[in-house]
Amino acid sequence: MESPRPGGHAGPIGPDGRAGIDAALVKRLIDAQFPQWSGLPVTPVEVDGWDNRTYRLGHAMTARLPTAAGYVPAVAKENHWLPLLAPSLPVAVPSVLGLGEPGEGYPFPWSVRGWLRGETAARARIDDLAGFAVQVAGFVRALQGCDASGGPLAGEHSWYRGASPAHYDAETRRCLTALKGQVDTDRAREVWDAALAAEWHGEPVWFHGDIASGNLLVAEGELTAVIDFGTSGVGDPACDLVIAWGLFSGESREAFRRAVGQDDGTWARARGWALWKALLNLTGFIDSTDRLRAGSELRVIEAVLADHQRFG
Taking the model in full, what pTM does it have? Predict the structure, then answer.
């Protein structure tokens, strides 16, 4: 999906457990804390995330373990709020079946979830990308319509998604300096300045915080579920529009734009979020051998710059 937080990540699992997490640890935790599920096979999922390690538990469940202390607040947040949000959403979200405690040498709380049908969204799995864009927009609108009373205000727990992109101003400007000659930094700076100028003054609404292909599940080309609400909260929904320049383009981007709505200021901030993320990722890829990932980030940046020229 993306790079490590604050940009996020998902990818194939390597042979070693991250943060000391492996299938044997998960098996011991299950045996000790959920004996009713003892004996079920524990196997890594094919594509995993950065914030958490996820393992299949039998055929109908997963065990999900944070990889570092910074991701721990998401456990209680998701466990509390997902059951309250789920009835108002048009597709499935993770169901919480159990809350685990630190143990067996693992220092953090963790959770057991229901297994969700589908594969991570990729263009090759979606025949009608414009129609899929409308489905994603419908999810975003439905989430924004959920009751935000008492919801967790954007801040450190959401990696400042839902807050002003100004939180990442210094980081973005460092990236612009580092990438001079690699991207059109003058135009990029205009996009960033426009995002900061378009301050949000609306009532807080629910946002997911990481609407991206790795967190969208599809089956037969249809959106079936949205996962990983670790960056969710209530605040400015601009961050949930970033997929417009990631997965979508051309007709599908226009379909998403029409279906999701949002005012010009929100789109300006969304361009800022997309630019920050792509610049940050690109600084990590530009001198590496991962030219494919670097090219992907460059395409996002060019799309954002063109969008600003058209709409900004």
Answer: 0.91
Q: Is the dihedral of CA 272, 275, 277, 283 positive or negative?
A: negative
Quote the pLDDT of residue 15. 37
Partners of 11 in beta bridges: 48
Closest CA to 245 of 218, 219, 276, 222: 276
- Please report the domains of the chain, with CATH numbers, ordered by start residue: 10-115 (3.30.200.20), 120-311 (3.90.1200.10)
Nearest to 195 by CA among 148, 238, 246: 238
**Token pair for residue 248?**
């979508």
